[in-house]
Design a protein that fits this description.
Number of helices: 4
CATH architecture of the largest domain: Alpha-Beta Complex
CATH superfamily of the largest domain: Nucleoside Triphosphate Pyrophosphohydrolase
Number of strands: 7
CATH class of the largest domain: Alpha Beta
CATH topology of the largest domain: Nucleoside Triphosphate Pyrophosphohydrolase
Largest sheet: 7 strands, mixed
Length: 168
């Protein structure tokens, strides 16, 4: 890349507001940096088994079409504002947009993981939260019977949550 091309790219990026990025820009940022992501593993105990709520990606998803995953979101610069502190805005957005405002217990921190995905490097902050009502979206799976079309990185998130929730 020439100095002029770098300046052109810089000038264009300066026009973007912090927060949600146009998808083609997001894809390139994801390729270049470690994306901060928030992963939430909703769970419940049913008939003595730990069940995890999984959602299906759209058929036209560029990286994981029709694959199952735990709810998650990219942490945005706009998540930190006068009304929220820490990850509150990201949690609120995730529960509203991905889970249909289902009632959950308080999120509990589980792990911080740096990993590779098809999209690029991600710095995942993994939390779990108990489902306090029947989910409005997705499907519950016993941890012992996770589906084959689960996104690969999600196995680690789920096993860490399962390890945390197993009785001593």
């Amino acid at each position: 890349m020439t100095d002029d091309e770098i300046q052109q790219a810089t000038d264009l990026l300066k026009k973007l507001e912090p927060g949600f990025l146009p998808y083609p820009v997001f894809e390139q940022v994801a390729r270049l940096v470690a994306l901060p992501i928030l992963e939430l593993v909703p769970y419940r105990m049913a008939n003595g088994q730990l069940e995890i709520l999984l959602l299906e990606r759209p058929a036209n998803d560029r990286f994981w079409p029709n694959a199952l995953h735990t709810p998650g979101t990219v942490i945005r610069a706009s998540d930190l504002n006068a009304q929220t502190h820490g990850l509150e805005a990201a949690f609120t957005r995730l529960v509203r947009d991905e889970l249909g405002d289902v009632r959950l217990g308080a999120p509990q921190f589980v792990a911080s993981l740096l990993h590779e995905s098809k999209r690029g490097t991600e710095q995942a902050q993994v939390y779990c939260a108990e489902l306090l009502e029947e989910p409005k979206v997705g499907k519950l799976f016993a941890v012992s019977e996770l589906p084959e079309n689960l996104i690969a990185q999600q196995h680690d998130f789920i096993q860490r949550v399962a390890g945390r929730l197993r009785p001593a």
